[in-house]
Amino acid sequence: MGRIVIIGGGPAGYEAALVAAQLNAEVTVIEAEGAGGACVLSDCVPSKTFIASSDVVTGYRDTEEFGVNAGGLAAVSVDAEAVHSRVKRLARAQSADIHAKLIKAGVTFVSGTARLGADTLGHTHRVEVTPSDGDRAYAIDASTVLIATGATPRILATARPDGERILTWRQVYDLPEFPEHLVVIGSGVTGAEFASAYLAMGVNVTLVSSRDRVMPHEDPDAAMAIERVFRSRGMSILNNSRAASVERTASGVAVTLADGRVVEGSHALMAVGSVPNTGDLGLAEYGVDVAPGGYLTVDGVSRTNVPGVYAAGDCTGLLPLASVAAMQGRIAMWHALGEAVAPLRLKSVAANVFTDPELASVGVSQSDVDSGEVMARSVMLSLDGNARAKMTGIQDGFVKLFCSPASGRVLGGVVVAPKASELILPVSMAMDNHLTVDQLAHIVTIYPSVSGSITEAARQLMHHEP
Ligand SMILES: Cc1cc2nc3c(=O)[nH]c(=O)nc-3n(C[C@H](O)[C@H](O)[C@H](O)COP(=O)(O)OP(=O)(O)OC[C@H]3O[C@@H](n4cnc5c(N)ncnc54)[C@H](O)[C@@H]3O)c2cc1C
Ligand SMILES: NC(=O)c1ccc[n+]([C@@H]2O[C@H](COP(=O)([O-])OP(=O)(O)OC[C@H]3O[C@@H](n4cnc5c(N)ncnc54)[C@H](O)[C@@H]3O)[C@@H](O)[C@H]2O)c1
Q: Same domain for 268 and 279?
């Protein structure tokens, strides 16, 4: 069995390495930043840890309504340095756990950078490795190479982050204190999550949204419900507004919008998307196809056009989620090592936006249905009729369910609620197992529970005009 070389140690790379090691392959992972990659060290894990602190603050909202006198939100103070050091500590610990797991599995882990070398014209691929400890560069000949190099925050030439006032989401944890007034530029998932968390922590937030609503790629009812919550809690949201430039002023930042308006703040957070880390890998010289935007083109089993060279994760731009990256990486190794493997299925991938409330979704989308691409019946059930939601003070949220008009099969759903990420699983399971709304409706749920609204939505979809 040949040697496997994996460039990048994020979820795509490390999960692939674990599969390959389990199949007794000789595996080397080369990673520039640390085990777990950007996901663990600067993106997903730090942001969710930060949001966990903001959730604690949210717990003090409206306590009087429950008969608990905690002094209200005004009595809560948050220690930014303590929050940031917890974020960094947890990220480092998670990275160390992954490193230990890889070593235990027999994977060789190299700290450094790698790129494809000259074509050896044989059955191997040469990978050039530059160790980060200053040791001499060397080459490894591999039978299979997996490129799993992830992505990096997109930088606008007119709004260059300086790490002090103009920030990427990777730099916020180095601030000595929270911003007084944060202008978040970009209202995709990243922008919405940070805007939500900072708002909860008591920061003045202005969200610059280039479209007519926040989170344009999410379910419109859900995105609008969350936008209403943001506004009701005091966030200023500028719709249909594009930032043309961000500059430092004496006391903070000035964000100039494309229409000439200027928004002042103490800090700006740039959340305008990511670009794939594929520029320095020698791909073009090696003949690996790269799509416009720098993304690697792969098929359902993660193969590029060059035999033996696979790619997985954010560098492929397929669906930039840690869960998908990990599955793409595993599939690549199962395929490369001759295991029976089904191609990646994206249809039933669940996703969650960790705002307050959260937004979880799976399966067909409202836009698929509205455009006529998918035939579906749907029901949207507000949580204000749910007993558990009333008891726990949930004011905003709903469950939406889609089913096939003919068979009644569950095609997808959306949940807006606190901890929606934990509530979407029954919908995913129903979808994946081809359950009908009748079958879902017959499941006896806990009373009282928010998940009871999922089966109630299914009950409502049982009865319909032929
Ligand atoms: C703010 C934020 C929050 C997110 N939250 C979530 C979430 O809650 N849930 C979720 O599912 N997804 C989330 N995501 C998406 C998730 O982080 C990515 O989908 C995931 O990190 C992709 O994993 P990956 O392995 O492809 O790449 P990465 O995690 O980016 O890892 C790639 C690694 O390769 C290294 N590398 C690059 N080039 C080289 C080279 N030449 N040599 C060696 N190493 C190299 C990089 O330094 C990096 O460490 C979030 C993203 C962002 C930006
Ligand atoms: N909870 C999660 O799972 C999670 C969290 C964060 C990111 N992600 C993943 O990362 C992906 C990318 O999300 P993202 O939010 O980082 O990027 P994105 O590309 O989805 O959103 C960036 C937004 O910024 C806007 N924008 C660009 N230039 C602008 C300008 N000059 N002024 C104002 N707005 C501007 C874009 O129109 C876009 O809406 C998501 O689709 C998701 O898959 C997942």
A: no
Atom 33, ligand 2: which residue's CA is nearest? 242
280: tokens are 């320095």
User: 184 with 243: CB under 8 angstroms?
Assistant: no
Question: Is 262 a member of any domain?
Answer: yes
Q: Whose CA is nearest to atom 7 of ligand 2?
A: 190
Q: What phi, psi does 232 have (nearest 5°)?
A: -65, -25
Beta strands in 330-382 (DSSP E): 351-353, 358-363, 377-382
Give the closest residue (by CA) to ligand 2 atom 37: 210
Mutate to test the pocket of ligand 2, among 190, 193, 275, 355 (most ligand atoms within 8 A of CB): 190
54 and 145 both lie in a single domain = yes
Task: Give me 251's structure tokens.
Answer: 């006391």
Residues 124 and 50 occupy one common structural domain: yes
Q: What is the pTM of this model?
A: 0.98
Q: CATH number for the domain including 401?
A: 3.30.390.30
Walking along the chain (466 residues) 10 residues at a time, the average pLDDT comes out as 92 98 98 98 98 96 93 92 98 98 98 92 90 95 97 98 98 98 98 98 97 96 98 98 98 98 98 98 96 97 97 97 98 97 95 98 97 97 97 95 97 98 97 97 97 98 77
Say if residue 414 is in the same domain as residue 453.
Answer: yes
Residue ranges around ligand 1 (CB below 6 Å): 7-13, 30-33, 37-39, 43-44, 47-48, 113-115, 148-151, 169, 190, 277, 281, 313-314, 320-323, 325, 354
